[in-house]
Amino acid sequence: MDWSKTKTIFIVVFLILDIFLFILFVQKYEDSQLETIGDLSTTERLADENVTLGELPDVADSRPYLNAESYRFVNSDVQQLEGQSAIIREGQILDSVLAEPVAIDDPEDPEELNELLEDFVLYGEEYTFWDYDEEDNQLIYFQTYDDLTLYYNLNAQIAVQLNEENEAVSYEQTYLTSLEEFADEQQLREPRSILETFYDRNLIQPNSTAVDLELGYYPPFVQVTAGESDEATTQVLTPTWKMTIENESGDEYDLYMNAVDGSIFDMSQVDLDFDQLEENDETAE
Q1: Where on the tree of life does the source sit, at the highest rank (predicted)?
Q2: In CATH, which superfamily holds the domain spanning 49-65+179-284?
Q3: Could you tell me if 157 and 272 are in contact, meaning their C-beta atoms sit under 8 angstroms apart?
Q4: Which is deepest, 67, 122, 248, 276, by most CB within 10 Å?
Q5: CA-based Rg of the chain, rounded to a whole angstrom?
């Protein structure tokens, strides 16, 4: 018997066995780690991944639902407007061209339009600047109620069109009227619960902080517009949380939640093109 070869064979066999056992050990360790992570509560996982609540403003703990109607503009509305030429489209859209363009220094903060909206736009004091749409070169304003923003509501916004020189030259407007509160107040989700829900849905990454929380209203169901009749379209608005998240790199983004039942609204899927109202009216005829 060649003991040298036999010795080599034993060494190779034991080496393979050691490698096999090591692999089993690593797999077992990783499985135990995953089980441990799975057993952690959401609160523990938030702490483990450094997801925190910043210094948030005081927020309401209850609010009622709202009922509202889409406003149908009439000729007397147009006659009130000065320094512009306006027409009414499909009853619900006021389309106006300004006689004199208004220069805007910073589209991200269009202070020059504040006075214009308050003095020359119907119910202009009820709108707040929301965003600059760089792709369409438009300034977007959302209607408010009781100082609360009506988020992403096609029937409650103003889109101000800018030209190539960043001058406001025209605008389109829709408006919600007859806003009434339901009798019963609804208990709202608390900040910690909001953060945990977003985190559980993988919408918040490690080392992030909730830096702001605001309450507004949003219609959770598809809005159906009326035809060319005088009958107004009604919609129910639900209290909605907007939580601003700052990630590790310092970038901020907003997340939205039904403040009553905790369902999440994906505002990236909301289309605010006024043409929808005309298309829906044609469908309703």
Answers
A1: Bacteria
A2: YycH protein, domain 3-like (2.40.128.690)
A3: yes
A4: 122
A5: 28
Cα–Cα dist 140/92, whole Å: 17
Helix (H, G, I), strand (E, B) or coil at 68: strand
Cβ-Cβ contacts under 8 Å for 265 (sequence gap 6 or more):
218, 220, 240, 256, 257, 258
What kind of architecture, by CATH, is found in domain 70-178? 2-Layer Sandwich (3.30)
For 251-284, how does the pLDDT look when each residue is reduced to its tens digit (9 = 90+)?
A: 999 999 999 999 999 999 888 888 887 765 554 4
Burial of residue 134 (number of CB atoms within 10 Å: 0-12, 13-18, 19+): exposed
pTM score, two decimals? 0.82
Parts of the chain with a pLDDT under 70:
1-40, 222-232, 279-285
Amino acid identity at 158? I
So where are the chain's domains? Answer: 49-65+179-284, 70-178
pLDDT tens per residue, range 20-52: 555 655 565 555 554 444 456 778 889 899 999
- List helix spans (H) across the chain: 3-39, 42-48, 75-80, 112-120, 191-200, 275-284
Both tokens of 62, joined, read 């209850």
Residues forming beta bridges with residue 216, ordered by sequence position: 240
Closest CA to 208 of 240, 268, 252, 241: 252
E-only strand ranges, 47-166: 52-53, 62-70, 84-89, 93-103, 127-133, 138-145, 148-149, 157-162
